[in-house]
Design a protein that fits this description.
Length: 337
């Protein structure tokens, strides 16, 4: 109820300013201890990638890029939180305006471009968090790092966050960093995964910690490209896959002026496309690698469809923005066990 009253005012603000204000407000509620007044959630545990999730609903990367609001967001009931995308060096991302609401379609277009304060800042925040639940860290490469040297960026950040992360997401599917999506294919993909698997093995040997590796895929891959990637994931024994990132398609929003903006589309129009990718992946992976659904989760029905299509967990982002914090608990409560 409270969010329904506040939402019109928030949506009159420039989107990035509204986002910052909403996060600051959640932080204030958590600092004052008011988040503890929220009703308890039923237990809905799931074990995925060897990790015990208290419930299957997580927050997707991008919402809290720098890990500044982990404790405040955790109080809303999420079964897991993914921070990032983080890069080795801080970078400003693309120039504003770079975030656009398509309110009639309940969609968002962003071309943020991995704006973040860098992995060293994130590590400082992770050292200060109180949250003890499952935390994913989403890694990307800096914009000025060539594809040939991209592996070094991912390895550097992996090493920096390994002690604090529950799992690592390899983001090579954002449409907002030039040529990044080329890393999803062929030898570039194999080399990246092999190098990170070596880092994973070394961490296990030195620290007795197994840190699952998850690959986040674009929704715009054709069937053959998706098959080749899935087979590479199986061959390299990757622990999980997120389907999907934002799309370059404008299907469902073509009539909107904002649809002309460059960037990745997320929200309700992405739902069917993302679910189709989940089904195709499941047909190939056959439960050998768990799938985390992301893209267009706006209702219990949409979330349930993704679980039925083969996903083990779901992540929300745009639905959270449009429907508000209270919706998270409703979603968790109403998902079928």
């Amino acid at each position: 109820m409270c969010y329904r009253l506040l939402k019109p005012a928030l949506f009159r603000l420039e989107p990035e300013n509204a986002h910052r204000l909403a996060l600051h407000s959640l932080q204030l509620l958590e600092t004052l201890g008011l988040s503890r007044l929220l009703p308890s959630l039923p237990s809905a545990p799931r074990t995925v990638m060897g990790l015990a999730f208290p419930n299957p609903v997580g927050l997707a990367a991008g919402f809290d890029k720098n890990g500044d609001y982990i404790d405040a967001l955790a109080a809303l009931g999420f079964g897991f939180i993914e921070v990032g995308t983080i890069t080795p060096k801080a970078q400003d991302g693309n120039p504003p305006p770079r975030l656009f609401r398509l309110t009639e379609e309940e969609a968002i277009i962003n071309r943020l471009g991995f704006n973040n304060k860098g992995v060293d800042y994130l590590v400082e925040r992770l050292q200060q968090k109180r949250f003890q639940g499952i935390l994913g860290v989403n890694l990307g490469k800096n914009r000025d790092t060539s594809l040939e040297n991209a592996v070094e960026d991912y390895i550097y950040s992996f090493r920096r966050v390994a002690a604090y992360a529950s799992y690592i997401t390899i983001n090579i599917s954002s449409p907002n960093t030039p040529e990044l999506r080329n890393l999803q294919h062929g030898e570039l993909l194999r080399e990246l995964l092999q190098q990170l698997k070596r880092e994973q093995a070394q961490l296990l040997e030195s620290s007795k910690k197994y840190l699952p590796l998850v690959l986040k895929l674009a929704p715009d891959l054709n069937d053959e490209a998706l098959r080749q990637i899935a087979e590479t994931l199986l061959a390299e024994k990757i622990d999980g896959v997120i389907a999907t990132n934002t799309t370059l398609s404008r299907e469902g929003v073509k009539d909107q002026v904002q649809a002309r903006e460059a960037g990745g589309l997320s929200g309700k129009p992405l739902c069917a496309l993302s679910t189709a990718v989940i089904r195709k992946l499941q047909n190939i992976l056959q439960n050998k690698i768990p799938i985390i659904a992301s893209g267009g989760v706006f209702s219990e029905t949409a979330a349930q469809e993704k679980l039925q299509a083969g996903a083990s967990l779901v992540q929300v982002y745009s639905g959270f923005i449009y429907q508000g914090p209270g919706w998270v608990r409703k979603l968790i409560k109403n998902l079928k066990r």
